[in-house]
Amino acid sequence: MQTIPKAKTSGDIKQYMTGIGRRARAAARELARAESGVKDKALGAMAEIIVRDSEILLAANKKDMDAALEASLDAALLDRLKLDRKGINAMAEGLRQIAALPDPVGEITHLNMRPSGIQVGRMRVPLGVIGIIYESRPNVTADAAGLCLKSGNAAILRGGSEAIHSNQAIAACLHQGLDVAGLPRDAMQVIETTDRAAVNVLLGMEEFVDVIIPRGGKGLVQLVIDNAKVPVIKHLHGVCHTYIDDKADVDKAIAVSFNAKTQRYGTCNTMETLLVAEAIAGRVLPRLGKLYQEAGVELRGCDKTRTLLPEARVASEEDWYTEYLAAILSIRVVQDLDQAMAHIERYGSRHTDAIVTEDLARARRFLREVDSSSVMVNASTRFADGFEYGLGAEIGISTDKLHARGPVGLEGLTSQKFIVLGDGHIRS
Questions:
Q1: Alpha-carbon span 267 to 289, nearest angstrom
Q2: What φ, ψ does residue 409 adopt, rounded to 5°?
Q3: Do residues 231 and 204 lie in contact, with contact meaning Cβ atoms separated by under 8 Å?
Q4: Three-state secondary-structure class, residue 154
Q5: β-pair type (119-126, 298-301)
Q6: Nearest to 370, CA basis, from 353, 389, 385
């Protein structure tokens, strides 16, 4: 593909994107019939070429980093943008892991004989063409392409303008891997123009694109939600909670709650609000508060919290809704399980919520009644991850209720169709 400069007209962008969509649709038909071994061969070759061309990738990433520094982009974005040898090796290993996963395409389940004599079952099939819009992280180019390829889908990838050189260099490696296996290069296309008009066109390409997956900040996801005519798999933000029940083991509660916040700050499955039952708060919060302070976490709390943790700032109404993605934690002391679940229902984002308790009945209630894509008992919210769930890699986390929910791995990138097996059967 040839790069389209930003100065081109909207008509040029439309024509460019239509060409990408048409080629992706044709490639999707080829991928749908590709054998597992062929797809795995491509993935293995991609991994080898990425490692082989690591110097090229590092040089491309340096161009992006230099431009980002000149543009004074913030430290968090620079951290996500940077590629090093460890990151390159991780990309390659991710592709190898995807190759090692079972291929969901063509799997037949629920096959049963009906009274009429026909057999009815379900077959797992690719979605078709998946558009992925993402920011900063160049590794998403390889991860997303690998997952789409293994699940039999063609991919149209639109990374952020800040990573344009890195993404194109990675795409060149991936295309060579497709060549090795004899698969069409159009199975994985990176949009090479940085013109934002291309995103708006992609969001409306109903003829060519079956689903859009945004990966990035709340602003990007909201833009996609507001403008897409194509179905979207997304989560808007991750306001994750841990509730410490008054029947909790104190040591267990402290370990889980500390890890859920501090193991990593900038992820969507990091705990942002800690809820503590009033009857146990005096035994838990002073110890936790000390640990959080030592880790440099800023605490914001309700009045009851601040009685036990005077160093905590007053939590505002807005704090309960906020995904900090930083070393900041909101804490509320609640009366009981019901009040905790009411708080989660009002302020949560339906991403990941956890309870720490030794009461089996309360644990079951929490699992049954909390309406989130991942609900946990006595475990850190940081486990809400495709790899930790045994899905291998993931393309993102969905808080939707239709099609895919939670970490979206290979199976989430497929659908099912009914199949019917007969032997000349006719309906009477």
A1: 22
A2: -105, -150
A3: no
A4: strand
A5: unpaired
A6: 353
Four-CA torsion 396, 401, 405, 408, nearest 10 degrees: -50
Amino acid at 374: S
Q: What is the 3-state secondary structure (H, E, C) of 198-263?
A: HHHHHHCCCCCCCEEEEECCHHHHHHHHHHCCCCECCCCCCCEEEEECCCCCHHHHHHHHHHHHHC
pLDDT in tens, 282-336: 999 999 999 999 999 999 999 999 999 999 999 999 999 999 999 999 999 999 9
Q: What is the per-residue pLDDT across 158-197, written as a single tens digit (0 to 9) for each?
A: 999 999 999 999 999 999 999 999 999 999 999 999 999 9
Task: Indicate the SS3 state at residue 420.
Answer: strand
Ordered DSSP codes for 87-134:
HHHHHHHHHHHHHHSPP-TT-EEEEEE-TTS-EEEEEEEE--EEEEEE
Which residue carries 């038909």 as its tokens?
29
Those residues with Cβ within 8 angstroms of residue 92's Cβ, 6 or more apart along the chain or in another chain: 46, 47, 48, 50, 51, 142
How many angstroms separate the CA atoms of 315 and 301, rounded? 5
Q: Considering only CA atoms, which of 225, 143, 148, 240 is closest in space to residue 188?
A: 148
213-264: pLDDT as tens digits: 998 878 888 999 999 999 999 877 889 999 999 999 999 999 999 999 999 9
CB 239 within 8 A of CB 273: yes
Going by their DSSP bridges, the two strands 154-158 and 188-190 should be labelled as parallel
Q: 401-412, pLDDT tens digit by residue?
A: 888 888 888 999
Confidence tier at 10 by pLDDT (50, 70, 90): low
**CA atoms of 133 and 248, how far apart (whole Å):** 42
Q: Which two tokens stand for residue 418?
A: 């009914």
Q: Which residue is associated with the tokens 């990425």?
A: 50
* Sheet architecture: strand order including 298-301: 313-314, 298-301, 328-334, 271-277, 240-244, 352-356, 374-377
Using alpha carbons only, give the angle 363, 325, 88 rounded to the nearest 5 degrees.
105
Task: Answer yes or no: are the C-beta atoms of 95 and 44 closer than 8 Å.
Answer: yes
Spatial CA neighbour of 39 closest among 197, 164, 147, 193: 147
Query: Which pTM was predicted?
Result: 0.86
